Every structure is written in C-alpha cells, then in structure tokens.
Amino acid sequence: MKSKKEIRKEILDKRNALIKDDVVKRSIRITEKLISLDKFKDSKIIMAYMDFKNEVMTGFLTEHCLKLGKTLAFPLIESIQGIKKICAYEPIDRENGLKPGTYGILEPVKHLSRKIDPQKIDMVIVPGVAFDTKGNRIGYGAGYYDVFLREVKDECFKVGIAFELQVVENIPKEEHDVVLDAIVTENRVILSKDYIERI
Ligand SMILES: Nc1ncnc2c1ncn2[C@@H]1O[C@H](COP(=O)(O)OP(=O)(O)O)[C@@H](O)[C@H]1O
Ligand SMILES: [Mg+2]
Fold it and tell me: Which residues line ligand 1 (CB under 6 A)?
C-alpha cells in the first residue's frame, strides 16, 4: 500500500494541474450536491474553510449559507497552552472579518469575530488532499483537523469536499485519524460505512 506521503504528493500534483476554469465548474457542481443534502438544510451552524490554490472553492457555498441565514464559522490556528490547534470563529464584520494569514489564506480576524463552541457546530466542511470511499482522509500532514474533529458533538456531520481526482482506492488510516461521515465530489455523494451503520 502507498504511504500517506506518496499519496499526498501524487494527488497534489494532479490537483495543481487543474486549470482554473475546471476548478470553478467542478466547485459549483460540488456545492450544488452539498446544498441539496438534508443534512445541510438542517444545519444551523456550519464550519467551512477558505480555499487556496486549487482546493475546492467554497465561495459559492458560503454565500449561499449567508443568504439562508446560517451561522458560518471558519478555522483559525491558535496556540493554546503552547499547542497550535484549530479554533472556530464566526466573522461578525462581513467586510473586514477575514484577512490573509499564514500562506495568504484568509482567516477570521479575532476582534471582529465571535468564537464558536465546537459542540454547537452542526456540520464541518473538511478540506483535504486525498480521500477514500470509507471516509478516510489525508490532509497537509499537520493533523489539525484530526484534533479539531474530536471536539465536535457526535451528531455533527463531518463532510469532506473534493474533486473526483482526489478520491483514491485506499488510504492508510492511523489511530489518530478521524473518519468522515461523507465525501462530496462533482460526481457523487459518498456516505461512509461508519456513518451508514450509525444511522
Ligand atoms: N489526535 C492526535 N493526537 C496526537 N497526535 C496527533 C493527533 N492528530 C494528529 N497527530 C499528529 O499529527 C501528525 C500528522 O497527522 P496526519 O494524519 O498524517 O496528518 P493529516 O491528517 O494532516 O494528513 C501525526 O504524525 C500525529 O503525530
Ligand atoms: Mg490525519
């Protein structure tokens, strides 16, 4: 079996090769699939992310969330007792609430945002490099989401969004990895076996 590192590189190369027009079109199709899910409709507090490079674009989704009056939070890496981790913040000021942080990715400005208790989040839109159909995920290698997803409530719907080219046969799962409930691509909605068995 390929290592996480090998898969990470292979898929990042493929995703980086997508042209912008493809990224836009596929991101719109992913958004349409995601917002048609009952789980989305029922979620009041949603954690999304701000895309960078060729990640699935979240702008269509976040605009839609705001139109529907949903509470929208974004990740901010904070140092808590010397340990860097993801915290959820809802930007209150729509104009200035997000600014470029590390690597130029937009992140919430703390004094213009409200901290959201992870236990209150109904749905987390999880970014990633590669996914398999069992709900396993490879991120950039820091394990930030593995830590954050343990803090949300059991009923919180954890959904990865990805282009079809990011879905691989098999991802080596380690003890600390959190399994997702679903993956949405431009072609399909994949519910994980773990999730199906739970509902
Ligand atoms: N819950 C956790 N407890 C302890 N260490 C963790 C935890 N989650 C992740 N890590 C650390 O983060 C590292 C990277 O995790 P990995 O799953 O490979 O990254 P990613 O999920 O970003 O692809 C792991 O080697 C592990 O040491
Ligand atoms: Mg992991």
Answer: 4, 138-143, 146-147, 174, 176-177
CB–CB of 124/47 below 8 Å?
yes
* pTM flag (> 0.90): yes
Instruction: Specify the residue with its C-alpha closest to ligand 1, atom 15.
Output: 143
All domains of the chain in start order, with CATH: 4-72+117-198 (3.40.50.10420)
pLDDT tens string, the chain, 199 residues long: the values are 899 999 999 999 999 999 999 999 999 999 999 999 999 999 999 999 999 999 999 999 999 999 999 999 999 999 999 999 999 999 998 889 999 998 899 999 999 999 999 999 999 999 999 999 999 999 999 999 999 999 999 999 999 999 999 999 999 999 999 999 999 999 999 999 999 999 8
Ligand 1 center to 147 CA (angstroms): 8
Q: Whose CA is nearest to atom 2 of ligand 1?
A: 176
